[in-house]
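Data deposition worksheet. Section B asks for the primary sequence of the deposited chain exactly as it was used as input, without tags or linkers unless they were present during the calculation. Section C holds the resulting structure in token form. Section D is free text for depositor observations; keep each observation to a single sentence. Incomplete worksheets are returned to the depositor.
Section A, Depositor: J.P.
Section B:
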Amino acid sequence: MTFSKLTRGEFLRYSRHLLMPEIGLSGQEKLKNSSALIIGTGGLGSPVSMYLAAAGVGQIGIVDYDVVDETNLQRQIVHGQKSVGKLKVESAKSRLVDINPLIDVTAYNEPFTSSNAMRIARGYDIIIDCTDNFPTRYLSNDVAVFLGIPNVYGSIFRFDGQVSVFGLPDGPCYRCVFPEPPPPGLVPSCSDGGVLGVLPGIVGSLQASEAIKVLLGIGEVASGKLLLLDALSFSFDTVNLRKNPNCKVCGSHPQITELIDYNQFCGVPGLDHQPDIERSFVISPLDLKKELSSITPPLLIDVREPHEQAISNIEGAINIPLHDIFVEREHIPRDHPVVLFCKRGSRSAMGLNVLIKAGFSNVRHLEGGINLWAEMVDKKLNIY
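Section C:
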């Protein structure tokens, strides 16, 4: 690749960088000739992509295959109201080019999977993990290790955030710290647990800062460190990490030499997975409406968190949060029909599996959760 120098117009655009001795002309030209692949254009991908574009990273790739939804706008600031219904990568690309028309942005409107990850990532100098699910997080890490490039990691949930840099020489990779994904359903997604709207901005900005430092080779980066942020208590802690010589992917004798898809996990847009459940254990909103008017209506159990009932609720339902189902199962009648429900159906499906394994037979869960119930049955209810 031919090394490109700054044009006359770029001197003014990047003047505040040029004034800094740590960056200067040579550093800004290095950014111009650098490339970064951003996996995800959501909460974290928004600030990361916008700040890297503004900083003058010459080649930016963005990967996503979701569409902009109104629920995204509370935190995904690269998108706006006019982008609702549009492809996220196209919405984000339009915004990035508007921020800096002097850079090249490549949009990959496709899921990041084992079949295309190497094709997409090859040629980039750095990967920035802005995902919100474990399958893509492990995949991003493994791709970075196989290609020998750094992986800037970030994660968010409610008020908590994490940041680190994986894959640098002598530094750990993500699997060194978290060797195996957690069991499906153990960790709720942001769509089920929520996230403070400004938190992705904080964590994503830190990711962008680390990425720029890595690309420039300046400062002390977060390799071998995991930053833990609690925005609710305004606390920042750092945990020291070590490279695991027995790591399955980056250790001296790697056991993982090919990319793996962990599609049994939920949280991947368009690939959301719920436990395999026979249709006889699933009830549609319209069928539930009929049964609630019958002589023996089913007992409704809301497995959402108590504060969610203030948003929307089905009259007559009792609240047993998912994490209490196992303990409270003895109080659930076995000789009466039971229907579990949650926001969208993922948590109720998990609760259903718990009860089935405990010997319950006359139990089902509501397809699509209370949100689909609100769309098809009770249109006065709020959808969230």
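Section D:
DSSP finds 14 helices and 13 strands in the chain.
Confidence is low (pLDDT under 50) at residues 265-275.
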